[in-house]
Specification:
- The structure is a single chain.
- This protein is mostly helical.
- 36% of the residues are buried.
């Protein structure tokens, strides 16, 4: 009953303030983690729905609460600052976005460290706002720092590709055409690995590579890319044609696309706009394929309690299993393979936990993996 009353109190306080377009006045009973979680969920909802003014008021309130409770070295507080800068940027307040993003980078570097992926992402966000504000040299410098962090982490994922694309953009804006081409080629190699050369993203970034060659005056490579783009667009028309997956033979021919879809799903955010298309293709392929046999058994039952869990986690498990089977040329998962797939799922969960919220089953697996008991826990009964 107390929990219900707390939630109702949060709802009335927040929605009354939003209805009047007013900031939330912070009271003592708001200074707790539960209220912060509630504000975070509502702010995220408003941000996704592009109601940036409301998202700003909610996130600002959450940030102030965390500052009062935990101080400015708190990771949650710094994350909130980072989100504030994203909202400010979308509100067109570029100078304020730069100031807030710089504070985020400085606090995170001093409090947590400069050798982690969050530091690189915060640097990249800062560079984006700086470039928008006409500060391309500063933007490029921060973007290069972000690349260096990821290189030291030995990461070649979607985030690294985005950072490299930004480096290419800023280099081009500064007339550094050879550097722009170098960064764009690196980004394209990652995108091809994760998403395939027939993806919209790969083709669109190939267009930018052509632009950089054109700016350099390299007509030979421009002409080559024109021909290449024509070929890729023609092939891409039938890339995700589900009719071709109705037979075992058709599925086998499209194993490369299935692997690309699996990698794409596991390496992009849970709210990515192309996720539904990728999931639909992967499910259709796995249903008819004779090359893999993936069992959704009782060990995953607690990930099927809600529609959200199924959408977020069962599909990610399917992607991780498809990835493992195709890369290792096996049809079914033995115990060691299953453990590897669950760890891949957990990595996906941790990367998206701020957006999906916590899941008790996955949290228990993370704890078991940390103390060395996960393999025993996952043994099939």
């Amino acid at each position: 009953m107390k929990r219900l009353l707390f939630i109702l109190g949060c709802w009335f306080t927040v929605h009354a303030a939003l209805a009047q377009d007013q900031p939330l006045a912070i009271t003592d009973d708001m200074l707790n983690e539960n209220y912060c979680h509630y504000l975070d969920s509502i702010a995220t909802e408003r941000f996704v729905n592009e109601d940036y003014a409301a998202a700003w008021r909610l996130k600002s309130t959450q940030t102030e609460i965390l500052l009062r409770m935990n101080g400015e070295r708190d990771e949650g507080y710094i994350h909130c600052l980072g989100m504030q800068s994203r909202i400010l940027y979308r509100l067109g307040k570029v100078d304020e976005a730069i100031e807030t993003a710089q504070k985020t980078v400085t606090l995170w570097g001093n409090s947590v460290g400069t050798d982690n992926d969050y530091y690189a992402i915060f640097l990249d966000n800062l560079s984006l706002y700086q470039a928008k504000g006409g500060k391309e040299e500063q933007a490029l410098d921060n973007c290069k720092k972000a690349v260096k962090v990821y290189e030291n982490l030995l990461r070649n994922d979607g985030d690294m590709a985005v950072i490299l694309v930004h480096c290419a953009e800023y280099s081009h804006a500064l007339g550094l055409y050879d550097d722009a081409i170098k960064y764009q080629l690196r980004a394209l190699s990652i995108i091809k690995e994760l998403d395939g050369e027939l993806s919209d993203l790969y083709i669109s970034e190939l267009e930018y590579l052509k632009l950089y060659y054109d700016s350099k005056g390299d007509r030979q490579n421009v002409d080559k890319l024109d021909n290449r783009l024509t070929q890729l667009r023609e092939r891409a028309k039938d890339r995700f044609n589900l009719k071709e997956l109705q037979t075992v033979e058709g599925c086998h021919d499209h194993n490369p696309e299935a692997l690309t879809c699996a990698k794409y799903l596991l390496n992009t955010a849970v709210d990515d706009s192309r996720r539904n298309t990728v999931v639909a293709y992967l499910m259709a392929w796995s249903a008819s394929s004779a090359d893999v046999s993936i069992d959704i058994d009782e060990r995953l039952s607690k990930l099927m309690n809600t529609r959200s869990d199924i959408t977020n986690y069962i599909t990610a498990f399917l992607a991780a299993a498809v990835e493992y089977c195709l890369e290792n040329k096996v049809k079914v998962l033995d115990e060691d393979a299953y453990l590897s797939v669950i760890r891949r799922l957990m990595a996906y969960y941790v990367a998206n936990r701020e957006k999906t919220g916590k899941n008790d089953q996955l949290e228990s697996w993370l704890e078991a993996d940390a103390n060395g008991s996960l393999k025993e826990m996952l043994k099939k009964k």
